[in-house]
Design a protein that fits this description.
oxidoreductase activity, SDR_fam, oxidoreductase, NAD(P)-bd_dom_sf, alpha/beta, SDR family oxidoreductase
Length: 243
């Protein structure tokens, strides 16, 4: 039975991916940090999906996750590095603490989690980074967030070359606007959120936001696409392709 680790897997895209891979016969471990989403995942996900609390910035937590994977599964076949945070604000308003927090979670956390679990990843396995379209197509008020995702994207071809002798494939998935709970986390009035959603949809050629399940399907494809490595697959309804 194949095994998968999904960071940031207690909500949104990560949770949708955990549910899909589980239905397809995977053993799954998900990590999260928010007590509310962790509790909901423990209640609502299939009971054999393992839910772990882990702070992406903590190397000790990364060690603990790797040990739990080793103890429960022995090896991994797929690692989906999905955990991340967003802090939309103009460049003038960033302070050092926010900058460090974004890089700590989105880059340091993913890099060292991968480093810790890499010895457990089977030859021929798959690594997938969640990057997002902003890394290549821009995101207003997203300078530092997008910089962190660009750092992950820069890792992909280098790690694909480095791990090719083990036949481990390294790819990125870049979701466009997705209808997940992250919109509610922006702490804006409902009418402001509604207007922002309308403005976003107006820029998507397919005329709607995507779903977590659609991103999960793309992740599942990359998990088993034996001749795809070093690539970034955009799943965004065509967002950004118009002049």
């Amino acid at each position: 039975m194949p095994a998968a680790l999904i960071t940031g897997g207690t909500s949104g895209i990560g949770r949708a991916t955990a549910e899909l891979l589980h239905r397809r016969g995977y053993q799954v471990i998900v990590t999260g940090q928010n007590p509310g989403t962790i509790a909901a995942a423990q209640r609502e996900l299939p009971e054999d999906i393992v839910v772990l609390r882990a702070d992406a910035r903590s190397l000790a937590d990364a060690d603990r996750v790797a040990e739990e994977v080793r103890r429960r599964f022995g090896t991994l076949d797929t690692v989906f590095l999905n955990a991340g945070i967003v802090r939309p604000q103009p460049i003038e308003s960033f302070d050092e603490a926010t900058y460090d927090d974004l890089f700590g979670v989105n880059v340091k956390g993913q890099f060292f989690t991968l480093q810790k679990v890499l010895p457990l990843l089977a030859d021929g396995g798959s690594i997938i980074f969640n990057v997002g379209v902003g890394a290549t197509r821009g995101l207003p008020n997203g300078s530092v967030t997008v910089a962190t995702k660009g750092a992950l994207l820069a890792l992909v071809p280098t790690l694909a070359l480095e791990l090719a002798p083990r036949r481990i494939r390294v790819n990125a998935i870049s979701p466009g606007p997705i209808a997940t709970g992250i919109w509610a986390k922006r702490e804006l009035a409902p009418e402001v959120l509604e207007e922002a959603a309308r403005a976003t949809v107006s820029r998507i050629p397919l005329g709607r936001m995507g779903t977590g399940e659609e991103i999960a399907e793309a992740v599942a494809f990359l998990a088993t696409a034996g001749f795809v490595t070093g690539e970034n697959i955009v799943v965004g309804g065509g967002v950004g392709i118009g002049a």
